[in-house]
Design the sequence.
């Protein structure tokens, strides 16, 4: 009987000893919440992202966070930890990427044990970003004009594919669906905002001057343009309307000109 009791006591002692020696391995979890990026989060390239991890274990000594896009690590942060049992990580940074982005965390303890956690988000290109660039080419004006003279009968004539040297420089606007542009039309420089929808940008009305040549006279016309640009394979295809009026004096003849027409053409993106 005594031997049995002694044997059982030894077994219990060994079990207690074994349980005391059981290794504590680390755990790692992704922080969730309205302010944090988590699995399936969608955002725009160039926006700020906030993410977090929490870890528990014994003698935690290091945490590594890695952001991977298209198989390449684009951002890494390594934090040394002073043998703690609990650890939390928060980071806010600007994320420049496109497509699926994997965010991974790894916690390591003093015994070399590790725990990992990861999640995927989707990083989309901002609608205005694809329009940014420098475009050059000719816009063509088609329309008609009426000349009312002080001492002659009115004149009506047409414009057919009148070339218009055009340069457009587009930058991203404050909002993701806005751009700001410098638009040079036939030597007259203007600035305009544009609203992006899909592959189209609609510019606000542009007021400019068109130096029209009639016989030997140059007639400055005050013009208003409405322009839509469509992005297609590196070109900005323009369509719109133009309307203007002006006064002129040709020797002993004076009068007014009114012009109305359409504007179109394709500009090449050079940078």
Sequence:
């Amino acid at each position: 009987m005594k031997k049995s009791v002694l044997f059982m006591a030894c077994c219990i002692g060994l079990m207690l000893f074994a349980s005391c020696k059981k290794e504590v391995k680390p755990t790692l979890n992704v922080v969730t919440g309205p302010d944090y990026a988590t699995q399936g989060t969608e955002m725009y390239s160039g926006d700020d992202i906030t993410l977090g991890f929490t870890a528990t274990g014994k003698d935690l000594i290091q945490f590594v966070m890695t952001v991977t896009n298209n198989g390449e690590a684009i951002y890494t942060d390594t934090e040394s930890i002073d043998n703690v049992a609990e650890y939390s990580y928060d980071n806010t940074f600007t994320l420049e990427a496109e497509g699926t982005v994997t965010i991974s965390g790894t916690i390591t303890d003093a015994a070399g044990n590790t725990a990992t956690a990861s999640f995927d988000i989707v990083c989309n290109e901002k609608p205005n970003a694809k329009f940014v660039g420098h475009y050059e080419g000719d816009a063509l004006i088609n329309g008609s004009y009426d000349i009312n003279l002080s001492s002659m009968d009115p004149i009506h004539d047409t414009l057919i594919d009148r070339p218009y040297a055009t340069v457009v420089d587009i930058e991203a606007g404050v909002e993701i669906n806005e751009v700001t542009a410098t638009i040079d039309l036939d030597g007259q420089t203007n600035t305009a905002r544009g609203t992006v929808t899909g592959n189209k940008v609609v510019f606000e009305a542009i007021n400019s001057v068109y130096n029209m040549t009639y016989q030997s006279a140059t007639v400055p016309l005050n013009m208003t343009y409405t322009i839509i640009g469509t992005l297609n394979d590196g070109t900005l295809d323009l369509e719109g309307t133009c309307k203007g009026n002006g006064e002129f004096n040709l020797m002993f003849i004076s009068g007014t000109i009114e012009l109305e027409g359409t504007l179109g053409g394709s500009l090449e993106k050079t940078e």
